[in-house]
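Researcher: I'd like a structural prediction for the single chain below. Treat it as a standalone chain; there are no partners to consider.
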Amino acid sequence: MKQTVVPKNLKVAVIGCGNMGASIIRGLVEASFYPQNLHITDSDAKKAQALKRDLGVKIAKSNRQAASVADAVILAVKPQVLDSVVDDLSSALPESALIISIAAGVPIARIQKHLKDKNPVVRVMPNLPALIGEGISAYALGSGSTARHRQITELILKAIGSAVEVKEPMMDLVTAVSGSGPAYCFLLAEKMIEAAYELGMKSDVAKKLVYQTFLGSAKMMVAGGDDPDTLIARVASKGGTTEAALKVFRSRGFGKVVREAMTAAQRRAGELSTQGQGNVHRR
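Model: Treating it as a single chain, here is the predicted structure.
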């Protein structure tokens, strides 16, 4: 369970209790946010009721009511309904309230336009592991944001993992790296399991070996401080099995494939931002 120092009277409204919104709410409670200071809403009353029953948070009668008492408002709604939600909230928001949007592909300027530049806005790109409290969220501060807004943003995002600040123009690349990144890991794991099965290993054994290998390797990268090249060298002895495998990856242009894939993801993220489309869970 995460423990952090939370300002006693900090009130947060979460608009939308889907997978990501619910994960944020759960993470905030686990991070010692006072449940009665969390005001939630969702178009599906059952989702909100389940969170109230499990966590003791407060259900607001409307989005406007939730926002009217909040120091920070988290917009966890689908991009296609974001404009109407912000329009509805605009006149109810306290001028000091911070708006945190996790709607993929929606630029800060678009939200600020609907707010008539009344409130500071932060744009966030979380990723799928946030659902288990192990995500990495990149955030960009909009105009008018202060050091306190940065502090509140990080306090909230660290309840679902880690957080890093970037400039907004980097958000399309963030999408290609960490937003879509979990799928790259899942794809490599899938292909390793398939190959092991085709070479004669039972699939359940292959899964256990591959999953734990990914988990342990990730923990080494995070905790050890060594760059990937150094870690590779620790595994690959000259003339050994790992070197034989790595030669195949390199000869088939593995690095080029990764770069091309990430370039395609970045390009598509830019297209979606321009079109005002996108979906938190389908990048």
